[in-house]
User: Which sequence fits this backbone?
């Protein structure tokens, strides 16, 4: 199909090829390389059509595969590759690269297997690409096989070594990553390997090890690049260590040209937020010369997360005045801070900005993003206690996900309307919307808040039978609490004893509290003993026992 379209394009394309006709072989090579480098697909296709018409295509097939790969057209690259009568190592490298670099790791690894079947042994370049493909899909087992192959062939170099470090760091195998890193020659300071190892430590949560490695590297007189500094900053953010963060910041300021790096600036901002040094974060933000939506969103989210909605909203307004359009993450970040009645007014203003397509801050959102933000607004209304606004938004939503329905159930449940929450649950069944474990937590919580015991028992029983959802301790806890309130303590105890999953402390604590209310001292003693086994430091069993003694 693709080949037919390419042939048709070649026949129907305007044949003004005077510029190409004047080029000799090296000139055409340079032209195709330029098309790939510039991602100029139109000119690349024109050159391809010219080569076909002039019967010169066979001499340029490898370059055409590379050009189409650089332009992101893997199907066209594959069609040209399929016409190569005897692909050599370079041919295979180009097609594997085309798939790997355009987000098709499975296909790239499949081509590696085809190389072996074809009898073309991969070199270290192809093996490095394959390792990177494994990392992108966390194919640890296959990555280890390639690593073994590399070790057997003895072809490892620093580029391949850094790919292996990245693979193991991505897959959480930090000890293997460090082993590969340590295989470098003593005193080696390869920029990519060191940077990748620091990044691997950050990704695996070994922040202190990452920082220590960074300073060791600096002690060897190496100047870090922006990528390495970002990894070191991420380690500091993970540690939440302000002293280390200030030292890293000083290093950034000392590095030539780094202050203007927006990506690094955003990482520094996040680092200071994690260290709870909001003033330093704001100073870093204000010092950034050009700010895209990323640092704006990070700073707005920082204020939202520490419950300073007014500052978040003022910054949101300033962002619009400076002509920076918010994205999905911006809205999700700022809405996180509007969870109280005091911030309700600002929350409604954010909703208005999101809905008003003519507003300066408005942005056209793809349907999935629009649904995510609408769900967040719905949740904001629920947390602020405005169920009418939540329901109005829910009813206006053109498309609803499970999260939308669950949020609406929770809105009613949390604000004293259990019957309406169960009505939404029935509507979910009517429209065929699936329910998951979280949905049932909200439904059972609604039953618990409303004292709807029989409904709670019915929903719990129907979870696995009707919906294929396995109840957890959290689900049983709602019903056990209901049984306890109703004084049906024997049933509550039997339910706990019959659980497949080991009962947690919360279940026994709930039963203990119910026994205290209804005066069942013997059952309280059994519940207290079970609670002490799980949480020896919990004082509840001793307190309840003492209260019973005082009453006798």
Assistant:
């Amino acid at each position: 199909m693709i080949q037919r379209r390419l042939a048709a394009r070649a026949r129907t394309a305007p044949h003004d090829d005077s510029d190409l006709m004047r080029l000799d072989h090296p000139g055409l090579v340079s032209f195709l390389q330029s098309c790939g480098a510039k991602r100029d697909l139109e000119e690349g296709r024109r050159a391809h059509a010219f080569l076909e018409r002039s019967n010169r295509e066979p001499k340029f097939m490898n370059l055409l595969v590379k050009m189409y790969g650089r332009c992101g057209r893997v199907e066209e690259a594959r069609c040209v590759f399929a016409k190569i009568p005897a692909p050599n190592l370079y041919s295979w490298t180009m097609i594997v690269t085309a798939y790997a670099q355009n987000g098709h790791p499975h296909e790239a690894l499949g081509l590696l297997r085809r190389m072996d079947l074809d009898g073309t042994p991969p070199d270290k370049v192809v093996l490095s690409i394959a390792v990177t493909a494994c990392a992108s899909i966390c194919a640890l087992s296959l990555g280890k096989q390639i690593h073994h192959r590399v070790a057997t062939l003895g072809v490892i170099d620093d580029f391949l070594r850094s790919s292996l470090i990245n693979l193991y760091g991505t897959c959480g195998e930090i000890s293997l990553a460090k082993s590969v890193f340590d295989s470098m020659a003593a005193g080696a300071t390869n920029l990519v390997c060191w940077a990748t190892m620091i990044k691997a430590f950050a990704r695996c949560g070994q922040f202190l090890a990452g920082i220590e490695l960074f300073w060791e590297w600096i002690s060897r007189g190496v100047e870090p690049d922006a990528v390495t500094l970002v990894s070191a900053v991420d380690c500091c953010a993970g540690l939440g260590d302000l002293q280390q963060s200030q030292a890293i910041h000083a290093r950034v300021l000392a590095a030539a040209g780094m202050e203007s790096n927006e990506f690094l600036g955003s990482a520094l901002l996040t680092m200071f937020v994690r260290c709870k040094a909001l003033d330093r974060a704001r100073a870093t933000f204000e010092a950034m010369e050009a700010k895209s939506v990323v640092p704006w969103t990070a700073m707005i989210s920082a204020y939202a997360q520490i419950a300073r909605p007014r500052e978040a909203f003022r910054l949101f307004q300033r962002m619009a005045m400076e002509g920076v359009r918010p994205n999905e993450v911006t809205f999700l970040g700022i809405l996180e801070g509007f969870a109280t009645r005091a911030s309700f007014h600002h929350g409604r203003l954010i909703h208005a900005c999101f809905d008003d397509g003519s507003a300066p801050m408005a942005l056209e959102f793809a349907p999935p993003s629009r649904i995510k933000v609408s769900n967040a607004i719905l949740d904001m209304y629920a947390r602020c206690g405005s169920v009418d606004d939540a329901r109005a938004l829910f009813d206006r939503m053109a498309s609803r996900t499970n999260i939308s329905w669950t949020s609406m159930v929770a809105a009613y449940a949390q604000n004293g309307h259990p019957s309406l929450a169960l009505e939404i649950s029935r509507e979910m069944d009517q429209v065929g919307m699936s329910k998951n474990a979280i949905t049932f937590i909200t439904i059972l919580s609604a039953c618990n808040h409303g004292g709807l015991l029989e409904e709670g028992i019915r929903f719990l029983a129907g979870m696995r039978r009707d919906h294929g959802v396995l109840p957890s301790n959290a689900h049983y806890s709602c019903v056990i609490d209901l049984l306890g309130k109703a004084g049906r303590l024997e049933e509550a105890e039997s339910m706990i004893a019959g659980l497949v999953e080991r009962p947690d402390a919360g279940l026994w604590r709930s039963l203990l509290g119910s026994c205290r209310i209804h005066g069942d001292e013997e059952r309280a003693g059994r519940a207290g003993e079970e609670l002490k086994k799980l949480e020896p430091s919990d004082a509840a069993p001793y307190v309840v026992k003492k209260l019973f003694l005082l009453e006798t």
